[in-house]
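Researcher: Here's the sequence for the chain we discussed earlier.
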Amino acid sequence: MKEEIVIAGFGGQGVLSMGKILAYSGLMEDKEVTWMPSYGPEQRGGTANVTVIVSDERISSPILNMYDTAVVLNQQSLDKFEKMVKPGGVLIYDSYGINTPPTRTDIKIYRIEATEATIEINNSKAFNMIVLGAYLKVKPIVTIENVLKGLKKTLPERHWHLIPMNEEALKKGATLIKD
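Model: Thanks. This is the structure I predict for it:
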């Protein structure tokens, strides 16, 4: 198994954290991983993306031109990365802020309402975990249990009390995927 993913959106949406948690989760399952963030000088509001590779075998390079999956959270990211999904791949996008939806017919496209789901669970900070839960429903490359272990590795100890809320957000995200 080898999964090459790009996650992209605005700074402040938790894009880089989502990739880092996914990478740590792969490590918890003894998989080979790479995590390569890319962001502009703006901490919030600028564009950010992260490339993650999770594999059962050694990874030769973290540099990719095409992806198995793209998770895009704004129009600029959709415009850039839609064409970089391999034929037969997956594109997941949050509908909020997307004016021109994806048009490709050779990939599987999932529209999710992650922004609305944060309102339902009354926690806007859980946005990235909702999106990650949706992704893992489509591509269960790591278990939720290992995502929670990955969270424990990435969160400072003073925030460990938030892990149950993040678990709830992951499960909520999985419900957003419709076949």
